[in-house]
Amino acid sequence: IEIVGAPIFNERKILKGAVLVFYDITELKKLEIMRKDFVANVSHELKTPITSIKGFAETLLDGAMHDERANERFLKIIYEESNRLQLLIEDLLTLSRLEKDEFRLNVSEITIDEVLSDIMPLMKHQADKKHIHLTVSQEPGLMIKADVERLKQVFINILANAISYTPENGEVTLLVKETDDYIQLSVEDTGIGIPEDAIPRIFERFYRVDKARSRNTGGTGLGLAIVKHIIEVHNGTITVESELNKGTAFHVYFPKH
Ligand code: ADP
Asked: Which residues of 129-163 are buried (b: 16+ CB within 10 A; e: fewer)?
C-alpha cells in the first residue's frame, strides 16, 4: 500500500488535520516484479549461448582450428548455440506480437484435416527419430474457426513437447473431436510426466521442470506460454493431467461459436 498525505490548515494557518490517501498498489507491484523477472530471465537465456559461441570462436582463433577434430567439434557447438539463439528470439518475437494490441487474429474457417496435413509430416519425422509411435485419431471433416498459422503453432508446440518428454519407443496420441460447444484437441503421451506442484507453473515464461533437460531437447521454455496466449485470444481453454513416469495429457477446447 502506498500512502499520500497532505496537511489541512485553517484560515489562521493552524493545523486542523490531514488527508491521507491509501493506494492499493499490490497489482502494480506484482506487474513490476514480473517485468523485472522477465528481463532478467531473457538476459540470462541470451547470455548462455552467446558466452558459449564467443568462447569456442576464441579457442578456434587461438589455434584450435589447426586441430581437425577440435575444429569440427567446436564449430558444431557454435552452430547449435546459434540455433538456440535463433529459436529463442523467434519465440520472444511471437510472444511480444501476441501481447501487443496490434495483434490481430486472421480467422478463417478450415478443416482440421488441412491443418494436420501441413504439420504432421514434420511431427512424424521427429517422432520417428525417437522410435515414438505417433497416432492421430480424428473425426474426419471437422471444421474449426481459427487463425490457421496460430493454430498450427499450438499443435506443433504441444506435440513437440510430447515427443521431447517421452522416452524412446513411447507413444504419443493426438485426438481431435467435436462436442456440442467445443472442438477438443488432446495430446497424450507415455512420457516422464510433470510433478504435481509444477503443473500450475508450466505455462509461465521460462519455467521448466528440468532446465538442463529442456535445453538439451532444444526447448526455449516459452512454448507453453505461447500456446496459452494463442488459446486465450481464441477464447479457448487448456487443461493438463499428468502422472510422473506415466505420462501427460494436454486438452485444448476451442469454442465453436
Ligand atoms: P520447453 O521449451 O522447456 O519445453 P515449454 O514452455 O514448452 O518449454 O514447457 C515448459 C515445461 O513444461 C517443460 O520444460 C517441461 O518441464 C514441461 N512439459 C511440457 N510438456 C510436457 C510433457 N508432455 N511431458 C512432460 N513435461 C512437459
From this structure: ebebebeeeeeeebebbbbbebbbbbbbbbbbbbb
